[in-house]
Design a protein that fits this description.
This protein has 6 helices and no strands. It is mainly alpha-helical.
Length: about 160
């Protein structure tokens, strides 16, 4: 039992990195998926709109990238990417976990809502393709909160 407890710090830290990837990735998969369904419907009717709807579909995918970035930074700080794991107490591991949670949770939620907003914007492009620039603004506004969470997680992980 002592050996397990000695490793709790790295377990908590790895859990934080894993949640950053898993939750933000789940949100992005959902967002890109629903936007892709809407985009496919538009392209079926008018293949010339492919590039515009593809851009709108891809927007919710950034949260998954943000979660991956935070996880890489955390893994690097832990020493796991260099081949050697540093000793870590449970309190430090919990700090890593807490530092990864902003992008994990906000990434999950914002990507889902950004996907829904992208669906609405794809509807705009379907009917009025000349309004693409305006249509891009709606999902981009949701992105703002993912970027804020990314910054908090990067600053927090970097401070450890």
């Amino acid at each position: 039992m002592g050996n397990f407890m000695d490793n709790m710090g790295i377990v908590f830290a790895l859990l934080g990195a894993a949640l950053a990837v898993i939750l933000s990735g789940m949100g992005s998969a959902y967002g890109v998926g629903v936007a892709g369904q809407a985009a496919a419907g538009v392209v079926t009717e008018d293949p010339s709109k492919f590039a515009k709807v593809l851009i709108l579909q891809l927007l919710p995918g950034t949260q998954g990238i943000y979660g991956l970035l935070v996880a890489f930074i955390a893994l690097s700080k832990m020493g796991l990417l260099g081949g050697g794991v540093q000793e870590m107490d449970a309190a430090t591991g919990l700090l890593y976990l807490a530092a990864c949670l902003p992008i994990a949770i906000v990434g999950l939620v914002s990507a889902r809502y950004q996907g829904r907003t992208s669906v609405a914007s794809i509807g705009i492009v379907a009917k009025k393709p000349e309004q693409f620039g305006k249509a891009m603004l709606f999902p981009a506004m949701v992105e703002t909160y993912a970027i804020l969470a990314l910054l908090v997680s990067i600053l927090a992980v970097s401070a450890l």
